[in-house]
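Progress report, Aim 2. The chain analyzed during this reporting quarter is listed below.
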Amino acid sequence: MSSGPCSLVRFAVIVSALSSCILAPSGFAQVSSSVDSQDAPEAIVQNQYPNQGGYNNQGYNRYHHSDTLSDHLAVELGAGFNVPAGNTGTWQLVGYSINLGGGWMFNDRIGVLAEYGFNHANIPQNTLTNIGEPQGNVHVWSLTLDPIVYYKTSGRIGGYVTGGGGFYRKLTSFTQPVYVGDYCDYFYGCYPQYENVTLSHFSSNQGGLNIGTGVTFKPNAGGKAKFFAEARYVWVDSPKSTTSSIGTGTVGMFPVTFGFRW
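Predicted structure tokens for the chain:
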């Protein structure tokens, strides 16, 4: 009978130990060891949460693009030929053209350019014969403000539309070749030299408009520099001849330009 209480105590201890082993979760030790994330290496945290970390996080900077001044500035240089349209063919033959410009791109698609244009062409011989002049030419230079919109910017090949208006100056000159003496060369001998002398000219200042479209080609698909080819229609509101002034009327022409834009 004296061993009864001792046996009961031993039985209670055994039951308590077995209950603890059975009721405890099998993964408790693993969970407890990983709860303290402060002790985890930074690389493991970044792999688990790549988009967190704020402004200076590596995952953020990888996709963040910072605009610079050069990203917005635009410069262009081009040259080509111009073709008269309509009645302008009475006073102009096919000539050459030069185009220079610079401006600001608001984003990859939309910008505005300030452009200088120069178009030169000779006067047809039948017109010169009718007015009794030996030679003549017409040139139109302009200062315009022209918005530009790129409708395709991805890849190497792109496209855009542009147009605007501004100040145009038209100058019509009549010239004549004048003998200025002989020039002698050791290989070719002596031959006469002539220089064109301006007999008369008249000019006008007026407003004008232009509109056109073009295509671009990027040597580097991810770069900003590109070659372009474009065609525009230019209309200049120059005056006609009156009893008190000389004029050739409005100008309509198609300058075709090939160049480089950055």
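The chain has two domains: 3-63, 70-261. The longest strand covers residues 157-185. These observations will guide the mutagenesis work planned for the next reporting period.
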